[in-house]
Fold:
Amino acid sequence: MGLRVLELFSGIGGMHYAFKYAQLQGEVVGAMDVNTVANAVYAHNFGLKTVKTRNIQSLSEKEVTKLNANMILMSPPCQPHTRQGLQKDTEDRRSDALTHLCGLIPECKSLQYILMENVKGFECSQARNQFVEALEKAEFYWREFILTPTQFNVPNTRHRYYCIARKHQDFLFPGGKIWEDFPGFNEDGQASTKIGEIIEPHVGSEFLVPNDVLTKRVLVMDIIHPTQSRSMCFTKGYTHYTEGTGSAYTPLSEEESHRIFKLLEETEDLEVRLDLLHQIKLRYFTPREVARLMSFPEEFTFPDETTNRQKYRLLGNSINVKVVGELIKLLTTILK
Structure:
């Protein structure tokens, strides 16, 4: 029997694309999320049949058994564990769904494989301890990782916690630690793919950084050039907040933009400064470019009614498809 995947906290389908990336025999038999906008994007790409607008806490052992699901892929809410949040951990109501699943996992005898993604910091949480206890109770072998897409030649930094677990056969690499590299990968942690390779050829003026942001916040922006092989983690606040939410792009070379910034330091005339800033042609990465940096395939699209603000929020809450796809391969090595 092929893999029968239950995708929980499914969002816009990042895990589904990761499963397709792994090229394993099987299918996604169910996808659940409470976010109706995300579910509309999921249905747009995969059809209405699979996705359900459901609270995960309503999921029962009976339903999992009826679906004959043997793999769970999930990315529970990260807000209880983020550095910017209150870090209320299991006391945060958004942790209730994961707590429910921790009680459910040992009851679901059909489950053979589990992959979970969360924000860096989750590894120090009570929720993590609760999750590992559930895996132990259900007699899973498990391994933990902190990985970033640059380790997989994707020019984007997005450190995330991952846990993979399976029954019946232990992994061929040791546990007892959190892996910060990928077993079998001889990468140096630096991407070689250039940002210029993912850039759209024609981008509208609506993506230009507004004048008020240019004049007040340009010095705190992470500015990326075509020949660079890096970018910041894109969050759901991208374009709405300036600092720490993602990089901005200029088509100029590093040398040329540095020359302009040096001229900026030499004048206090507001008109001259704004003219210099316009010469940098600074713009936001488009949703398509952000999707590429998160390894979504070109076939992935948004419904026409989805606003750019919604696209950025949904992408910021999603996963890197390539990293998870490689982990799914590692998780299921015994099938080969």
About this structure: The longest strand covers residues 26-33. DSSP finds eleven helices and eleven strands in the chain. The chain has a mean pLDDT of 92. The longest helix spans residues 126-137.
